[in-house]
Amino acid sequence: MNLGTTGSSLPADPTLVAMPAIADPLGRPLHDLRISVTDRCNFRCTYCMPKEIFGPDFAFLPRSEVLTFEEIARVARVFVGLGVEKLRLTGGEPLVRRDLPVLVEMLAAIRRPDGAPLDLTLTTNGSALRHLAPALAEAGLQRVTVSLDSLDDAVFSAMNGVDFQVAKVLDGIAAAAEAGLGPIKINMVVRRGVNEASVLPMARWARDAGVILRFIEYMDVGHTNGWRMDDVVAADELVAMVDAELPLEEIPPLYRGEVATRYRYRDGDGELGLIASVTRPFCGDCTRARISADGHFYTCLFTAAGHDLRTILRDPAFEADDAAGDAALRDAVAAVWRVRDDRYSELRTEATSSRLPRIEMFAMGG
Ligand code: SAM
Q1: Closest Cα to atom 23, ligand 1: which residue?
Q2: 294 touches 45 (CB < 8 A)
Q3: 304-335 pLDDT tens trace
């Protein structure tokens, strides 16, 4: 199967419904779109989909409710017309969605209104990368972020909930590197009393392997992980742990809204990131929208409600008129973004965390 490549010399997408880039009342533009391609996952991470709750009887979305590749690509085109420059595929576990390279090829063909290609990436647990990395790269995926919480099998197995071995994830990371899906980033969620001892070994390994490790503060997404502030290992503590052995210095973000605070090792080799949504909220610069696998549009990871785009996508009134359907989608998205005032992480307290309703991360797309 030749999935084709995506040269940057392609003309602007003629089907793109473009309008001036939009911003919310806090001046935040719409820059990034995270697309969940499935709510299913082959892992049961304790902090995301604990197996006691998401067991064999748990009802995931029926196939008919999940957006098709054509619907996802259409939504993506509309968001790009509103200013989105970066697409990230996620889930659930995106690699469990059948034929994912076909979707990647469709998304890689989309051009911004000025004709430039998109930044197209994917977050994965890495379990199927050995098998899929070459096809994803050939389809036009540019890079990947792989989640890995420890190099210690006992710790990692306990956290991923399915006894998945570290060596298989490392092999997936190697496959991604061989396929040219770099720079590779590694997400490590740090939970107090669970994998703090893995912080330094992960930093040493990532530096040697030439991948960018990003520590993620354990967040109160959803309601099933029993989050408590005491379980969070704060960004300052994480930096201090690494800095004591491998001196660090902060470096500027690459663009407005970049989620990770970036550090470089003072001896010049390698980079480290910190995603500190709990102790250093970055709502003021949040330029991210999310689309769940069932076509709901969310403006905050911690929100309780989404905006249904699937009904517009499947509205029989637009069956014979793509342009009218695209315009309806565009108007719906713009109307939501223009009044968006989310800043959950800036307002978070232990009390709000247990009281406010929220959607599980795997359901919305992480
Ligand atoms: N299955 C893919 C993966 O494992 O990367 C993509 C989806 S996962 C929900 C996306 C990211 O969210 C992962 O890096 C995961 O570690 C992180 N994550 C999930 N629950 C979290 C939580 N409660 N706090 C912080 N990060 C979390």
Answers
A1: 219
A2: no
A3: 789 999 999 999 999 888 999 999 999 999 99
